[in-house]
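Reopening this ticket.

The earlier resolution said the output was attached, but the attachment link was broken on my side. Pasting everything inline this time so it's all in one place.
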Amino acid sequence: MSQNTQKNHSAEEVESFSKWGILIKRFTGLSKSFYLMLAFFLLIAVVGIGAGFHAMYIGYSHAYNITREIPWGILISTYVFFVVISTGLFIVSSLGYVFGLKDFMSIAKRAVFLSIVTVLAGFTVIFFEVENPFRMAIYSLISPNLTSNLWWMGTLYGAYLFFIITAFILLLTQKHKLAKYAGFFGVIAAVVANTNLGAEFGMLHAREFWYGAYLPIYFIPSAIMSGCATILFFTYLAHKVNNEPMDNAGTKALGVTTKLGILSICIVMFFTAWKIITGFVGTEGKIEAFKAMLIGKYALNFWLFEISIGMAIPLILYILFRGKNMEMIFVGSAFIILGIFFMRYDLVVLGQIVPVYYELGVSEYETLLTYFPSAHEILIVLGGIGIVATAFLLGEKVFNAHKVEVHENIANSSDLIDLTKTETIK
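Inline output:
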């Protein structure tokens, strides 16, 4: 071995040890609250995953409260909750490094990272909902059904995951031109996967509450609303976790994200109003489902969590405190995330509470069906939340708070547009 080769190997070893040293240093000397939070959410994630494997071992019919009449429960709604948030996060992140809006740049890396984390959390939850996930994965490859929305859902979200991971790696390595292309295809995959997910419900003729063209379109503004709320929520937490003041770029990013959030909330409220109006011109079964939502058993979920906490209060907070009080924006974002969780739950369950034979007068199905999640289901949902929280805390330290360095090429790109000046930054 030549002397130059030995020097190169030595330099690589020193650089490798240096990187590990920097990484270890980021996890030392932190506050006790950080370690406690990390341990707490990691424990929740482990318990949730353990509950999933236990349910798989004893049989889902014993572990879950789903039935033949209501086969989709809280695990399906939580999967929808996570993957729609993921696509929303990625769409919001792409406004900066893909579409050239400068003010979104400082949140781009964190938003892409969180989009990866949330879609993986969704995959984890759905893994324990499918009775034989390994068989599903194998036969999706060797015997695909191109006419199945479920097959397309798995394929499209798989492609989406590939593009967002690629975009994140390219952003980390500062290959911004390639990241732009990966992000562009990721946005296409996100939109198509999201609308296909809506079509998964909307194309079921037997479920009148879902059936129609409404849901594939609704999922897009709903994703953007949830993406805005999630990045606002976690960006505020990130500055608390890292104990760093928010710089001017970060403040501007949150300001424009809040504006986008206001717009998306208004659009979702518009969609919700027309969903109710058109719901009462449907068949008897559909009307009964809407009555259950508005004045029946699910009225508290709808009026308190979906409407008040999920949209009305956050809209007021966003308008009043935009760019002024980040604590109140944080509260509004937390409310939206909570409200969206109930939106997804109500969407899935309400579509199944009316028996298929309800209008035929079959005696066994004269009343609406009921469902409440089991302990196993609740633990798996909490496990998904634990995965997201744990990954967020680790990501803030591993990726150095997802900072956009001044010297990065994209920060100096002539393609970036400053929204506050409405002109191209040269």
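Reporter confirms the inline version is readable. The longest strand covers residues 417-418. The first helix runs from residue 3 to 26.
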